[in-house]
Amino acid sequence: MFGGLAELLLVAAMLGLLLVGLLVFAATVLVRRARRGTLRTPRDGFARAGEERGLPLSEAYEQANASSAWTRTTP
Q: How far apart are CA 61 and CA 47, in angstroms?
């Protein structure tokens, strides 16, 4: 009677451990990149694009948003 329930709980526990392991791995990678200074954010991309065009960050951000498909298709 409890055989099916035990197997289900075992599978759920194994999937839970797998998920926890993946989350720990992702956190480790993010922390390592942040400490090295190699973590990239969207703000870095806008800053780099602005530097290439000679624009401040706010103008580079506005231009990127103005050229996105969302703003072009939204009335």
A: 8
Dihedral of alpha carbons 53, 59, 65, 67, sign: negative
What is the spatial distance between Cα 53 and Cα 64, in angstroms, rounded to a whole number? 12
Is the Cβ–Cβ distance between 62 and 49 less than 8 Å? no
Identity of the residue numbered 60 = A
Report pLDDT digits (tens) over 27-39.
999 999 888 887 7
What is the per-residue pLDDT across 33-59, written as a single tens digit (0 to 9) for each? 888 887 777 666 767 767 777 777 777
Pairwise CA distance, residues 60 & 47, whole Å = 7
3-state secondary structure of 44: helix
Find the DSSP H helices in the chain. 3-36, 42-53, 57-66, 69-73
